[in-house]
Amino acid sequence: xxxxYFDQDTVQEILKTPLFRQVEEDDLIWRVEKNGQYYVxxxxxxxxxxxxxxxxxxxxxxWSRIWKxxxxxxxxxxxxxxxxxxxxTQARLLDKGVNFSSxxxxxxxxxxxxxxxxxRARKVWQDCLLISKVNSVMxxxxxxxxxxxVLLQERSCVQTELFATVLWSLWKSRNLRLWQxxxxxxxxxxDRVRQLExxx
Length: 200
What we know:
Layout lengths: L1 H4 L2 H9 L1 H5 L17 H12 L11 H6 L4 H12 L5 H6 L15 H7 L1 H9 L3 H10 L3 H11 L2 H24 L5 H14 L1
Helix pairs in contact: 6-11, 6-12, 8-9, 9-13, 10-11, 11-12, 12-13
């Protein structure tokens, strides 16, 4: 194989390498991990920390609070997408040059509107008895991500899990309305939250 790929001078140099004849069996070692094992997660972390300028990608917040929630992975994923600013709302699509009409006749659709400001969302927060908590945090924080991180930090486990699953159910309801023309009541949205909690 060496003869096939290299010229004769290079072949001779390769064959002179001491390890070529001394080592009977190679060991694969990944120096990033203490145990020497390779993990995609550690390779990704290495690339993000050392190889790329990721300062533009950094977002403030205690991300571990999202991953520690006792909710289904799809709920955690949604929270992560909201906090990273990559949820495909009308505002996000317009930023990308995609013409997209809002699902809500009331307003321009951004993440904050879908999750908190829309009359349908406000009714859901009222019915699940979290409206005062959501309102008080919204008064002190500007972005949807800030609101999520503050609520995850300030509330009990039960309340944070309820809060997270309500966000997911609101997003699900928005998508059902957009793609299947199904309009849900706040009771239906909360029933889906309860079903999700029972499955856990």
